[in-house]
Automatic annotation (TrEMBL):
InterPro entries cross-referenced by the UniProt entry: MobA-like_NTP_Trfase, Nucleotide-diphossugar_trans, P-loop_NTPase, YqeC
Gene3D superfamilies the record matches: P-loop containing nucleotide triphosphate hydrolases, Spore Coat Polysaccharide Biosynthesis Protein SpsA, Chain A
One Pfam family hit: YqeC
NCBIfam families registered for this protein in UniProt: selenium cofactor biosynthesis protein YqeC
Name assigned to this protein: MobA-like NTP transferase domain-containing protein
Domain of life: Bacteria
MobA-like NTP transferase domain location: 253-423
Organism: Blautia hominis
Amino acid sequence: MNKSLLDMLKSLGKWPKKPVISLVGAGGKTTCAYLLAEELAREGKKVLVTTTTHMEHPAFLGRNGVIDKSPEEIKAAAEKSPVVTAGTSGPGGMKMRALPQAVFKEVLPFFDAVVIEADGSRRHPFKVPASHEPVIVEGTTHIMILAGMPAMGKPLGEVCFRMEEAEKLVCQAKLEGKGSLSGMCLTPRLAGYLLEAGYVQPLKTRFPGAEQMILLNQTEDGNAVAEMGEHTSVPVFGRPSLPAAGRGQIHLILLAAGFSRRFGENKLLYELDGRPMYRYPLEVLETLRVLRKDIASVCVVSRYGTILEDAAEKGFCAVENKESVLGISSSLKLGIRESRRVCGTDEKEEDFYCFFVADQPHLRADTVNRFLDGFLKSGKKIGCLAKGDTTGNPVIFHETYIPELLRLEGDTGGKKVLKKHPEDVFLCDVGEEIQLHDYDSRQSLEITER
């Protein structure tokens, strides 16, 4: 069985009560940072994810972040979530930068573990650091040095960030290669030497108390790991690739059978800018079906003939709910059963069921598309859109949660299942909070229209 990242770190020596783990190198630091944070959270720890340089902005990873916030706001976030990403805004809003040093020190007592992306590689799968890199905080207990297996066998000039630093080290070692250095293929042997000279030895001098390891990421090749290990003084581990996003099929289900009691009329047919409210999410589903190859079915459950006819015209499965008086759970069950009936089940494929509501007219297809991509990459089995502490629709469930969903009764939807399994939930920041708005009453609509 492959070791988890946490198991690898614990095998290095005595495990501290409050680990501070810095990830450096190249080839998957951000992914590994969150995997590690989630493993720590499953042990009951409150985990801070941050950076000393810059890392992907959490909003673009489908994660909630506490950006440009005070220590008190970061503390409040830690009280509500086991994993908190905190930092400051980077240029253009695409990256997150480090917390101010004073803020970082002030928030440390709020957490049981810290995971830090402490190096930049500009998306290269391999790196040799400059003299001012990496940027590691005092008190770091563990340093994980990454190299991406996809870099192996390729010309060094194509895969290495800070090529000039690699040239210095290769020249010092008088390593011979055919042709130019940039054309020399990166092997586990050469990678081991460059990481040892570029990272391991300088970091042993700077942080003698910190445990170190090298992670040859995205590989199960034991020979490559062993060959690299022959040229380093710290343990080398391999980690296989995560399953690719899109590995399963997604069923989109629109729940459109409500009675609109508080609205005073059928809100789903209420016109917004010349179109009935239900048509906005219906068009989102239509766009997603075009955008994504992993959409296996689109199902619309309603008690209203107009909506069912419109859905059928678009080629969706239109399911009449004759028992909508029993609540939203009845529509949810009908949607699941119809999706399974239409597509059947395939043991080779994983099935995911994504539920939408028909009174959410501001939701955008590009937002849902980003959400689905992030969810599939996360490895989680439940996901939803969110803004801060507010969670919203759509909500997606892996097939393993179908029995639990089918046991729901009354006016209870999938959120009840989501709340029971917070450790398995992927939250995607929606961006504009208005996209989460649904409309229970005319008053709520009027407030938004102002």
